[in-house]
Design brief:
By secondary structure, this protein is of the alpha/beta class. It is 48% helix and 24% strand. A 4-stranded mixed beta sheet has the order 1-2-4-3. Helix 1 packs parallel to helix 4, helix 3 crosses helix 4 and helix 4 packs across helix 5. The chain is globular and about 35 Å long. The chain starts with a strand and ends in an 8-residue tail after the last helix.
Length: 144
Amino acid sequence: MIKVLITNEQSQHEFDCEQLRAAVLGVVDEAEIGKGEVSLAIVDDETIHALNVQYLQHDYPTDVISFVLEQAAGHLEGEVIVSAEMAATVAQEYGWSTQHELLLYVIHGTLHLVGYDDKDPQKKIEMQAAERRHLRQFSIEHRT
C-alpha cells in the first residue's frame, strides 16, 4: 500500500487535498509501485526557493522539487514539494485555475519519482504525454 502524506506549509491558496492524493496514487499505480510512502508538501515561494538553493544550488524559486529517498522493485519512498504561490502566478498566465496548475506540479513531481525525466528532448515529450494522461483522469486538458 502507498501512503500519501500531505502537509500545507502556506496559507494563501486553497487546494483539493483528495485530488492531489489521487494524482500521486494514479502515477505510482501506473508505475506498478504498490508499497511505500510519498510526502507531498505545499509551500510558498520563499520556502521552495530556500530548498532549491540548499539541495540543488539553484538560487531562485521553482514550481516543484522531488526527491527519491528509497526505491526498489514495487517500492518507493519519496518527497514532492510544490509552490502554491508559483502555481497561482503561472495559472494566471495560462488562464486556468491555481488548483489545475498545482495538480500539474504534483503529477510532474511524482512522475520524476517514478523515473520520468525532462532533460532530454525525447524524454520530455514522453513526460508531457504522461502529464496529459494523468490530467485527463480529472477531466482536465493540459495547458500547453
